[in-house]
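Recall that a protein's primary structure is simply its ordered list of amino acids. Everything else, from secondary elements to tertiary packing, is in principle encoded there. The following example makes that idea concrete.
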Amino acid sequence: MAYLSFKNINKIYPNGFHAVHNFNLDIEQGEFIVFVGPSGCGKSTTLRMIAGLENISSGDFYINGQRANEMGPREREVAMVFQSYALYPQMSVYDNIAFGLSLQGVDDDIIEKKVTETARILGLTDYLERKPRALSGGQRQRVAIGRAIIRKVGIFLMDEPLSNLDAKQRVTMRSEIADIHRKVGATTIYVTHDQTEAMTMADRIVVMKDGYVQQVGSPYELYFKPVNMFVAGFIGEPPMNFMSSDVNKGTVLAGKTSLDLSHILDEKTLASYEGKKMVVGFRPEAIELGAKENAYVLNATVELTELLGDNTNVYVDIDGVKTILKVDPHDTPKMDSQIQFSIPYNQVYLFDGETEVVIENKTRNL
């Protein structure tokens, strides 16, 4: 296992493009860290700098307390799993997993012992004589992971490893990778654009946008305590609903309905936002159908419903504002019907309309 430290890391390409800005992070031994964000946010570039495949433009990168900026990839003792699997098609599963050890000149009996143990961990024992073309996508990905973990390095890097799998395989592989991490115990850094993968696998998540770190925290912290609108909207499925309005006499508008902010903001904060733009946010699953106490009550028109089995997504119109609600499938409203729903005060998020930074809701004690 290894611990890593990043101090003001920047990546600037020769054409002047600034891909990563002042990246700071400490990663503990054995942590499972996920970098998540939209395409082009800098997450894969950061991973490649860790691997030594990209030079660091400025800043300091440490592995186990030793500065690693000038270390080659082999000196860093990292193993990387790529999106494309990168298996040798002419080799058997056994030979693909053993390839790195063979290059190092490890004795055949030791290789056989390690391959056998790795295959057992990954559930590949019955497939060792097969070629990659005879395997499913999930099995190929396990072979790629096996080739990485057999080396017993301290750092595993995974770059979008599940993106080539179908939805069912991704669910299975998420749990398998998490289980492998628990068994192997190596420090793991995993890159994905899929927030579901991040939420279900990570000890901590690093949310990135346009080369900047937006927030670092546990899945719980990012879901319940987002620091800004980007994190709030990126984490969660369906995404958080947002409604923007100027503050007028201590209220904001949700469609045509006035929401009294004194229920959720202290007097000083509320006064400081008078006449300024504020954004109200709430998660689709946080609502309750009907009028409830200690909640904002809104009326809406149902435009579309999506029955997903365990819940129904309900797309509604609130006086021209499009919103998504998540309800119990047994309570699915009819198309074009008028419904009333409540947003509990302690489930409301508020954001500065200019900076998009979260404003503290005095009723949220999570």
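The mean pLDDT is 93. The domain at 4-233 is CATH 3.40.50.300 (Rossmann fold).
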